[in-house]
Amino acid sequence: MSNTLFDKVWDAHVIRKIEDGPDVLFIDRHLIHEVTSPVAFLGLKNRGIGVMFPERTFATADHNTPTINQHLPVQDELSANQLKALEENAREHGIIHWGLGDENNGIVHVIGPENGITLPGATIVCGDSHTSTHGAFGAIAFGIGTSEVEMVLAAQNIMQPKPKKMRIRIDGELAKGVTPKDVALYIISKLTTSGATGYFVEYAGDVFEDMSMEGRMTVCNLSIEMGARGGMIAPDEKTFEYIKGRRFTPKGTDWDKAMEYWKTLKTDDDAVFDVEYVFNAEDIEPMITYGTNPGMGIGISKKIPDSEEIEGGKSTYQKSLNYMGFDEGSEMAGKKIDYVFLGSCTNGRIEDFRAFAQIVKGKKKAEDVIVWLVPGSHKVEQQIKEEGILDILNEAGFELRQPGCSACLAMNDDKIPAGKYSVSTSNRNFEGRQGPGSRTLLASPLVAAAAAITGKVTDPREML
Q1: Residue 308: per-residue pLDDT
Q2: Which has the closest alpha carbon to 32: 80, 102, 99?
Q3: Which of 152, 195, 217, 453 has the most neighbouring CB atoms within 10 Å?
Q4: What was the pLDDT predicted at 310?
Q5: What is the DSSP secondary structure assignment for residue 230, as one 8-state letter?
Q6: Considering the domain 5-275, what is its CATH architecture?
């Protein structure tokens, strides 16, 4: 019987099938952070039980962490308490913990791949919706709730209904200035934020095969933003080369054995998906969002659509535009912005900083724009310094902050003020996502860099 990549990985992890119910799924890797884990550990304590396989769980501090002066005590009381709880719970249960200042610390979906925790064919969960990032390695990865975090800690399994299967194929070659972030935002603009609800997505075709591993992570990261349970890309030589030799990858004969299995992880030629979509690479240009969900995106050269062109209620559409202070039919290019944020689990990796530096090199930051450049981990921060990118940034008038989730979400000190416009490389542009009343324009690192130099929404192709 022919199977999809998703079927092969999922079925290999089913401990028990419940008739007319969910599957009991074994979990290979469990990532935790300070926000969703404290209540789960409290549940274990109240039940008088421990963590079944502590060596399969990895803890890092990221959501509530400051991105300046991390050597000082965290001022926000709630954040400080959550960070302390994560450290104490990890110590009590023998879980690896990378807190503030640790060389391995960083955003949970950045440090997983960096350290070889993320592997092909694995099942990976975390109390965070963007766990789908890890699907770039041919893993089944998805976010879970607090009660499910407790279940995985206690039993290393989870009860989940098996999602339906979707394949998205894009063939051809991306044009200059078009990045993986643009590809993802383009797909979401076509499918809408609910178009993949109930599905697990496999990305296939020339565009994804040509992407770097970091690019694939960006695409899989954003799968959740079109309603999918997760996204994945079949592992290939790029995948194996990326993970080889990392801290938690198999070594020696174990590597050889793992490779035999990993090379089978691809969709069979005649496997059937529940639904398939096909797009053309040449139709994609640098993207920018104009509304209050990731599906409200257009090519940067386009105009904001009229309500008649949009499916759904006109009043809801108008409410979104009113919040953003935009009008139907107006151009996005040229709109003034106040903040730029480069970072997050979507675009906080070294390739994102290389792209940003490519645009700003030899230029100067716009004086009236505040720019937060936040690496996804200390390892990324070190690479930025070693590759001379920090020098380019400093010469252009930018400063580098310390690792963390930062301005992706308003859970730390990096908040966008009410009414201000932020070009952000993060993943969500919901009302108040970056701070109460903040207005977020999702974009690629290239678009963010162009905006940081010009002070307005600018097509980066003009600056390459």
Answers
A1: 85
A2: 99
A3: 217
A4: 81
A5: E
A6: 2-Layer Sandwich (3.30)
Q: What secondary structure, in 3-state letters, does 330-348 show?
A: CECCCCECCEEEECHHHHC
Pick the CATH number of 287-462 from 3.40.50.2300, 3.40.50.720, 3.30.499.10, 3.40.50.300: 3.30.499.10
Interior/surface letters 433-463, b for 16+ CB within 10 angstroms, e for the rest: bbbeebbbbbbbbbbbbbbbbbbbbbbbbeb
Strands 199-204 and 57-60: unpaired
Spatial distance between the Cα atoms of 406 and 398, rounded to a whole number of angstroms: 16
CA proximity to 410, closest of 125, 182, 78: 78
Instruction: Give CA–CA dist 361/366, Å, rounded.
Output: 13
Task: Report the chain (464 residues): mean pLDDT per 10 consecutive residues.
Answer: 96 96 98 96 97 98 96 93 97 98 97 98 98 98 97 98 98 98 98 97 98 98 98 98 98 98 98 98 98 97 91 86 97 98 98 98 98 98 98 98 96 96 98 98 98 98 95
CA distance 108 to 376: 9
The kind and range of the H/E element at 277 are: strand 275-280
Kindly tell me the burial class for residue 143, based on how many C-beta atoms sit within 10 Å of its own C-beta (0-12, 13-18, 19 or more).
middle
DSSP 404: S
Q: Which amino acid is at 89?
A: N
Q: Looking at residue 436, what is its pLDDT? A: 97
d(CA 390, CA 194): 39
Would you list the domain boundaries of the chain? 5-275, 287-462
Same fold across 5-275 and 287-462: yes
Q: How many CA atoms lie within 13 A of 428 on its CB side?
A: 17
